[in-house]
Amino acid sequence: MSDVIRPYGDTTGDGMVQVSFTLPIPHDKRAEGAALQWPPRWD
To answer: Average pLDDT by consecutive 10-residue portion of the chain (43 residues)?
Structure first.
């Protein structure tokens, strides 16, 4: 038995990373727009 604890759905060696985040603004249309624009800037 392995002592390694992996996140749900993790596949070792697939090169993929799942990222979760929160934005410190109220949930509204502006927040939804910010959430859609933010990840592409990580390139």
So the answer is: 70 76 84 80 61
